Amino acid sequence: MLSHRFAPLVLCASVTAGCAVGPDYQRPEAPLPSHYMGQAAAPTTEASAGALATWWQAFNDPLLTRLIDQALAQNLDLAQAAARVSQARAGLGATDAALRPWGTVSGSAARADQSIETPLGQVLDATPGYDRWGTAYQMDLGASWEIDVFGGLRRGREAALADYEASRAGEMATRLAVAAQTADTYILIRGLQTRLDIAQRQAKTQQDLLSKVSLLHAKGLAATYQVRQTQAALAAVQASIPVLRTGLDAAMNALDVMLGVPPGTNRPALETPAPIPATPTIASMGSPADLLQRRPDLIVAERRLVATNARIGEAIAEYYPKFSLTGLIGSATAVSGGNLFTSGASEAAAVVGLRWRLFDFGRINAQIDLAKGQDAEALAAYRRTVLRATEDVENAFSALVNRNEQAATLRQGEASLSQARQSSFAAYSRGAASLIDVLQADDSLLRASDARAQAQIESARAAVGAFRSLGGGWQAPSTTTSGSQPQPASERDIHAAS
């Protein structure tokens, strides 16, 4: 039991346990608009939380879903992010341990032979009954506790907790980026396969057209420039095919790396062409304020702001003295091990420690100024991240709306050219049009199909960008009242994001 002389110190510690020097964190005002400019025009619908968390399933492509699941399980960027979470968790554990008492157990047994050639040995040797051999036993139990009177250790734990939460949100940001990049690359692969098929059919059409024009030229029924024009058109189409193949190879390799496997691993599953995934309707667009709880990069920025705010208090706590309690209970004997735990061999000590950087306030002032500067930097970074997040959403939905409109217009044009081609072929069947007219109609239709395919690719990729800009469809948690200690979305709801 502690001596009554230590009671005032313990009482002071208990009274001030709930207090901590330095500013308490309050979420700053975020520069957010009340609504999105493109909200009215954006195609949105309501969806369940599960559907929002797994937004890629809205593309209704089982292979895409399988690839994203594989990427989320094997991606090496995610492995690095998980390792950073483990490091932050270890740092948090260290700050937790600093708030609690700690103890040590030590023991020793020594056997020594005293020299009788030294002055001390000669004196001892002259003592009757002196034995040059000596034996000593000791066993001690010690404990120490730094009393966090002014809250410096608690501020350090608050900062470590915020760093840990930021690392978890950073892991979720990486997961969202991996899923979006995998979907984007898969869409690009399907789009390039579609365009490659169109280009190959277009090259065949141009080759047939060149054969017909060359035949007419040989008979004197077509001018030389018509042959040259047809040859140039054929060369242009043929030159585009290697470019498309190069892009397709690069996209397939990039997808394999994203999945954490060597390039070529998933090529057999992707070699068979498939349609470009249809652009889904975005579910539950929400309001700009929801981004503070949905987007992991905003959670990271705010948690870092919480950490820098707490470190101001940690630095201010260095102005004040630090108290510690240390106790020791043990036993020591130089006779025999059997006497080690007898009452005569017992020993005890109690120490009240005081450490105060009384003449080091200049260095403390510099540390506080450094902490305040880091906090100001984190605040500016947070507000910039908020602005860029809203810009990202606005740009993503503008691209989605306009790409959808472009794709719809090009589909109409493709349908019109398809009807024109049918009319041309019907006229050719009646002898009212030449085969060249039919081939030219085929070429125009294929050009329109390629333009429509490109628009469809960009429309689907815009949908991926919109999902990503909204934070992947996270459910917004309940808000925190102003002035209270923050309970971040990353700590409560981060597990809901996939």
UniProtKB/TrEMBL annotation:
InterPro entries according to UniProt: MdtP/NodT-like, OMP_efflux
SUPFAM superfamilies the UniProt entry points to: Outer membrane efflux proteins (OEP) (SSF56954)
Biased composition (Polar residues): 476-488
Gene Ontology CC terms, in alphabetical order: plasma membrane
PROSITE patterns noted in UniProt: PROKAR_LIPOPROTEIN
Region (Disordered): 473-498
GO MF: efflux transmembrane transporter activity
Domain of life per record: Bacteria
Pfam families: OEP
Family: Belongs to the outer membrane factor (OMF) (TC 1.B.17) family.
Protein name per UniProt: NodT family efflux transporter outer membrane factor (OMF) lipoprotein
Organism field: Rubrivivax gelatinosus (Rhodocyclus gelatinosus)
